[in-house]
Each structure stands twice: as structure tokens, then as C-alpha cells.
Write a structure and sequence with these properties.
The complex is a heterodimer of chains A (227) and B (279).
Chain A lengths: L15 H13 L15 H6 L4 H14 L1 H14 L5 H10 L4 H22 L8 H11 L4 H23 L4 H21 L13 H9 L11
Helix pairs in contact in A: 3-4, 3-9, 4-7, 4-8, 6-7, 7-8, 8-9
Chain B lengths: L20 E11 L2 E11 L1 E4 L8 E7 L9 E8 L4 E6 L3 E3 L7 E9 L4 E5 L3 E3 L4 E10 L4 E10 L12 E10 L2 E10 L3 H6 L9 E8 L7 H8 L3 E7 L2 E8 L2 H16 L10
Parallel strand pairs in B: 1-5, 4-6, 5-8, 6-9, 7-10, 8-11, 9-12, 10-12, 11-13
Antiparallel strand pairs in B: 1-2, 3-4, 12-15, 13-14, 15-17, 16-17
The chains are: A mainly alpha (227), B mainly beta (279).
């Protein structure tokens, strides 16, 4: 900020835990973490088969992010982060019940189980298998990591996974894909903040066309992805 | 079924007060081979009509005598379907959600089903008018061997009348429990900027109408392939888990929605649709 007065230059001193926390979260949510996310397209593959192209991709992704399953996931991540352990089974039951199709259910359960298994083994956390956003929220809580950055990174990773899928499904190009991610990032940050402190009554989506695409993926042939 | 079509004119919403309230509580039970009414209470604007008995499940038709829903309205339906009993519930006409000057209209449906009971919850369309604010809940508790078919068609404004939906809020939440376990939940939520949501490609994708269908039944899997056929290119269906079949369907308008919805529901119901659907 320019104030007209000489400003004192300070070099920010990041506390060691903050950098470590950032590294843990980015490690857990990097494509290299073995959750098998690259297998899933969250209905994008059938949307592309039905005509979604490069011109419509960004609007599709931002709509899905703010009004579709990723928003539900963000809310569940926060709820799991805040929940006492005895509340986790009923949250897991609801998260699974909200999967509208078999592939979406497999996507969240298999990625959750893979994330939990890896994190138990590598970080030594007592993390039972549960749907993916809950597993991430619970792991962050157990490791003493803050919920909002965990949620923002989780959302960005979900979107990044879909852009990676899009790169295989359409002539998009790495630079255009990076541009989309650049513009989705503030939405991820905003959604992570908005859903903090929300409850089960705030769950809800309006991604009707994405739901239909996701449901129709089961009968898409040929296909590369499992959702 | 005989009934007059007269409906009281809309009352002006008085500030802070519920505009219209209605509640229907009913219980049906299996008696021999048939289903009989064993309890009925009707309050306020909601009435239940019973068409001429036909073989098969008991049919009951809900009528909102206030003519529509608007801010502050409260409607509640509670039904108990005893073990082995079979009930089909529908509505006399499309439900109109009018502009809400203030507050939201709330509507809740709760059904408890005994072992082996059958329920068809097949209301006609809900039409969201410009400025509507509607929140609905549907809670279904099923015991072992119970079977339920649920369908909720929603129309976004009246396109055929040249009315586009610009601002409206809509929420609809379903919770379905089987033997105490939550086996399916859907939650819809949009507004107040309905126009942006309905136009966005992953969201409404320009559709003017939508329906959600759920069949919870042991034989659900066998209906999956024919259901996909019936839904056409803008619908999708999945056997989410054993005995739980879900479908979502989009259409340009209410007329085109029915074109796919009616055969889909007849297929899932294994029977003709309630007569009021075809009036």
C-alpha cells in the first residue's frame, strides 16, 4: 500500500510449522499421491462425447465447481474436519448416500480408501476408510492442519484432475489448461471459505446437466475413464 | 373421481403471517388382500381425495385448495403405510409456486413404510413461477422388503407462455432410509439468480424442466436398461447400489418432459399412471 510515508520493509518470517503444513497438504493433494484420481473424469468424458468442447469447458468446470459435487465435497471436508470421531460414520453414510450414480459412488469411496490407506501407512495417522472429502478433512484435523487451505487445495486438485482429463479428451493444449486453472483458483479459494462453518442443511447442488452426463457415462463406449 | 375445479382466489400475504397452511396425515393398512384407510386427518388448505377404488394399490390424490404456494405457506403430508400395504399418492394438478413477496413456502412429505409395504409418490409437476421461493423436504423411512417409487418433476417458469425464470429460489431435499440406514439422499439448491444457473452448461444447460426419479426395490436392477431407453438422450440412470435406482431427466419444457417421464414412470411403477395424470 502506498501511504506517502516511508514504509518499513520487513521480510516475512514464516513459522516453520506453516511451511511444513503447506508441504503436507500439497503432498496429499498432488497428482502423485496414489488415490487413482487420474482414472476418473466426474462425467466430463460423457459431456465431451455429447458435444462439450474447448469453448465450453471453462464454464462447465466453474459451474460444476460452485454448484455441483465439488461444492458438496467441500462442505463434507469441513464437516469432517470439525467433527468428533463418533460423528464420522453418519457423515460417511450421508456422503455416500448423496452419490447419484454407481460411478460417482465408486469415485468417492475408492479415492477415499486409497487416500486413507496411503496416509495411514506414510504419515501414521489413525484414519479409517471413508469417502474422499471426509478422509482429507479428517486427516487434516488429525495432523493439526487448517481446514480452509486443505479445502481450497482439495478443490483445486479436483479441478486440476478434470483439466488433465480434458487434455486427453479434447484438443485443449497445456497452456489453455493452465489458463483455466489460473482462473478457477480464486473460485476454489472462495468456495473453501464459504463452505467453512456451513452445515448439512446447506448441502445442495444444481448441476443437473453434469448429473445426467455422469449417469450416462456408465453406457458410454468406448471410454478411457471410470466416471 | 368427482370434484369441482373451483379454487379460492389467492389471499394477500399478510406480513410475517403464514399465508396458507395445510396438513394431511393418513395411515393405510393391509386388510386381507386389500389396502384400507385406517386413519385420516385433514387440516387447512390440504385435502385428500380418493378416486373410485380400483384393483391394486389404494390411490389418494392431494389437493391444495389455496391454489398455489407462496412465501409463508406451510404444507405437510405425513403418511404411514403399514406392513404389506400399498399406497399411490399423487396430486390433483400441477403445484404452482408463485412469486413470494416475503419468506419462503415450505412443503414437507414424510412417509413411514412397514415391512413389505409399497409406495408410489407421484406428484404432478411443480411449476416455479418468477420470484418463487420454495423449500421442500421428503423423508422416507422404509422397513425390510418395502418398495418405493418417487418422482418429482419441476418446471422452470412457463416457457410456453413466454415467461422465462429470472429470479427464483428452490431447494428440494430427499432422505431415504432403509432399515434405519440412509441409502439415498438428493439435495437440490439454486437461486436467487435462477436465470444464470439454468443457462449454465453443467447446470440447467438451458432446460426448462427436470425430473428426478428413484426406485428402491429389490428388483430395481432389472429396470435399468429399459429405463435408459425410456429416458432418451437428455436423461441418465444408474443403479447406485443394490436395490437403489436413480434417474435425472432434463427437457426443453414440461410437454417434452412428460413425453419421456410418463413411459419411464409407467415402466418403474409396473402399472398405468394415476388417472389424474392424464386429465
Amino acid at each position: 500500500m502506498i501511504t506517502g510515508r516511508p514504509t518499513r520493509t520487513t521480510i516475512p518470517t514464516t513459522p516453520p510449522m506453516q511451511a511444513e503444513a503447506l508441504l503436507t497438504l500439497s503432498r496429499w493433494l498432488s497428482p502423485g499421491y496414489p488415490t487413482g484420481g487420474f482414472n476418473f473424469s466426474a462425467g466430463l468424458e460423457s459431456a465431451v462425447a455429447a458435444g462439450l468442447d474447448k469453448a465450453g469447458l471453462e464454464a462447465w468446470l466453474s459451474g460444476l465447481l460452485c454448484h455441483g459435487a465439488p461444492r458438496t465435497d467441500a462442505l463434507f471436508l469441513h464437516l469432517a474436519h470439525a467433527a468428533p470421531p463418533e460423528a464420522l460414520p453418519s457423515l460417511a453414510e450421508r456422503a455416500a448416500a448423496m452419490a447419484l450414480g454407481a460411478e460417482r459412488l465408486a469415485e468417492t469411496l475408492q479415492q477415499g480408501a486409497a487416500f486413507a490407506a496411503t496416509t495411514r501407512a506414510s504419515a501414521g495417522l489413525d484414519l479409517p476408510d471413508m469417502p474422499y472429502p471426509l478422509a482429507v478433512g479428517r486427516a487434516a484435523r488429525l495432523a493439526g492442519l487448517p481446514a480452509v487451505p486443505a479445502c481450497a487445495l482439495f478443490l483445486q486438485a479436483q479441478m486440476s484432475n478434470m483439466v488433465q482429463a480434458a487434455l486427453r479428451l479434447m484438443p485443449l493444449g497445456q497452456t489453455a489448461g493452465a489458463g483455466i486453472m489460473e482462473r478457477l483458483a480464486p473460485l476454489c479459494a472462495r468456495l473453501a471459505e464459504e463452505t467453512a462453518g456451513q452445515g448439512l442443511a446447506d448441502l445442495g447442488t444444481a448441476a443437473f446437466a453434469a448429473d445426467v452426463a455422469s449417469l450416462r457415462h456408465e453406457v458410454l463406449a468406448p471410454r478411457m475413464f471410470r466416471s | 373421481m368427482e370434484m369441482s375445479a373451483t379454487r379460492p382466489a389467492l389471499a394477500e400475504a399478510s406480513s410475517g403471517q403464514p399465508r396458507a397452511q395445510g396438513a394431511v396425515t393418513l395411515a393405510v393398512a393391509r386388510r386381507g388382500a386389500a389396502t384400507r384407510l385406517v386413519g385420516l386427518r385433514q387440516e387447512g388448505a390440504l385435502k385428500l381425495l380418493f378416486p373410485q377404488p380400483r384393483p391394486g394399490p389404494m390411490q389418494a390424490v392431494l389437493l391444495n385448495t389455496s391454489g398455489g404456494l407462496t412465501g409463508g405457506d406451510r404444507m405437510r403430508v405425513s403418511a404411514e403405510v403399514g406392513p404389506g400395504a400399498a399406497l399411490t399418492l399423487t396430486t390433483q394438478a400441477a403445484e404452482r409456486a408463485y412469486r413470494a413477496a416475503e419468506g419462503v413456502a415450505r412443503s414437507e412429505v414424510q412417509v413411514r413404510m412397514g415391512a413389505g409395504a409399497k409406495l408410489h409418490w407421484l406428484p404432478q409437476e411443480t411449476i416455479l413461477f418468477e420470484g418463487a421461493a420454495l423449500e421442500r423436504r421428503l423423508i422416507l423411512e422404509m422397513e425390510e422388503g418395502a418398495e418405493a417409487l418417487i418422482a418429482e418433476p419441476v418446471i422452470f417458469g412457463r416457457r410456453e407462455m413466454g415467461e422465462a425464470l429470472a429470479r427464483a429460489t428452490f431447494r428440494d431435499a430427499w432422505d431415504v432410509r432403509l432399515c434405519g440406514r440412509l441409502v439415498f439422499a438428493d439435495a437440490l439448491r439454486f437461486g436467487p439468480d435462477a436465470a444464470a444457473t439454468l443457462a449454465s452448461p453443467a447446470l440447467g444447460a438451458g432446460a426448462g424442466a427436470m425430473a428426478s426419479l428413484l426406485l428402491v426395490a429389490p428388483h430395481a436392477e432389472g429396470k435399468l436398461a429399459p429405463l435408459r431407453e425410456a429416458l432418451g438422450p437428455r436423461g441418465g440412470a444408474s443403479l447406485v447400489r443394490e436395490g437403489v435406482l436413480f434417474a435425472r431427466l432434463l427437457a426443453e419444457d414440461g410437454f417434452r418432459l412428460r413425453h419421456h417421464l410418463e413411459p419411464a414412470l409407467a415402466l418403474l411403477a409396473g402399472a398405468a399412471l394415476p388417472k389424474v395424470w392424464r386429465l
